[in-house]
Amino acid sequence: MRVQDLQHNELLELDPEGGMIRFAGQRALLIDAVAMGLLRQYLVNNFGINAARTVLTQFGFAHGWRMAKAMRKEFQWTNDDEWRQAGPYLYSL
Questions:
Q1: Short-list 93, 71, 92, 91, CA closest to 82
Q2: What is the enclosing helix (H) or strand (E) of 10?
Q3: 70-84, pLDDT tens digit by residue?
Q4: pTM value?
Q5: Residue 24 in contact with residue 74, Cβ under 8 Å?
Q6: Which residues, in sequence order, are CB contacts of 23 under 8 Å at separation 6+?
Q7: What is the mean pLDDT of residues 34-43?
Q8: N or C: which end of the chain has fewer CB within 10 A?
């Protein structure tokens, strides 16, 4: 597979009967952007900017790590460079 062949409609699976959302074969959550902003604000207000940054950075790292593993597992890549380029490409979809 080549990174240009990735299509969001093929990566995203919605199961309205079971209420399940999957992205690249992994269970996913749909989270409101405002709610995420409020979480960030809460973390800053209650724990400070450094603690909030640490928690959100670790969350972002874990999210990226899991997505990379899912993309490696779900698709047969032409080469490792294609797999590595898939991460940034996904966010542009």
A1: 71
A2: helix 8-11
A3: 888 888 889 989 888
A4: 0.77
A5: yes
A6: 11, 12, 13, 70
A7: 97
A8: C
